[in-house]
Design goal:
Layout: H1 2-12, H2 17-34, H3 39-84, E1 94-100, E2 103-109, H4 111-119, E3 122-127, E4 130-135, H5 136-145, E5 150-153
Antiparallel strand pairs: 1-2, 3-4, 3-5
Helix pairs in contact: 3-5
Length: 182
């Protein structure tokens, strides 16, 4: 019947063939638009996946930036250690032992360096299989950034004398010297 009406309109000159084709395609588009094929859910899933991917990318970029910054700090720390490291005396008579990662390492130093190490003016840093005697502030920075490199660092908490004394201690009146060498 619809075709009969279209034919009548064509014969009367009220419509053209092109106009009829346009109406048919528009009807098909309208029918397809009304059909729910799940594309809206699919679009939402895709949008959600893109958002999650963007978050992961952002987190990864931040992590890479932090690593690069840390590497830059470590690199600058290495150059600073090499610049500020004190030269060890060639005729060092005292063997100074320190532990690093459950291994005992030693340096031969003189009395002056030993006193500075024990008083907290110097520290020992070890990396790339070599030990460096550096100023205390630099050793503290190394301890903060790369604790695995800090061989010896004087801290006030470690070197406080113990106040707990036994009541029956027969040697309580005798003072133990700080520079006692075995």
């Amino acid at each position: 019947m619809a075709n009969a009406l279209q034919d009548q309109l064509l014969k009367a000159g009220l419509a053209s063939k092109q106009k009829m084709r346009d109406v048919k395609t528009q009807k098909k588009r309208d029918r397809k638009a009304k059909v729910d094929d799940g594309s809206s859910e699919l679009k939402q899933q895709i949008a959600q996946q893109k958002a999650e991917q963007a978050e992961r990318d952002k987190a990864l970029n931040e992590k890479r930036f932090a690593e690069a910054t840390e590497k830059g700090l470590v690199r600058s720390l290495v150059t600073e250690i090499r610049k500020q490291a004190l030269n060890l005396p060639k005729d060092g008579e005292l063997k100074f032992n320190f532990t690093l990662e459950n291994k005992i390492h030693s340096l031969f130093i003189d009395n002056k360096l030993q006193q500075q190490l024990l008083n907290g003016r110097l520290g020992i840093v070890r990396f790339e299989e070599k030990s460096y005697v550096v100023p205390h502030k630099l050793a503290e920075r190394v301890n903060l950034l790369v604790p695995a490199w800090c061989g010896y660092l004087w801290t006030a908490a470690e070197n406080q004398p113990e106040t707990a004394v036994e009541e029956d201690d027969p040697y309580a009146d005798y003072v133990i010297p700080d520079d006692l060498m075995w």
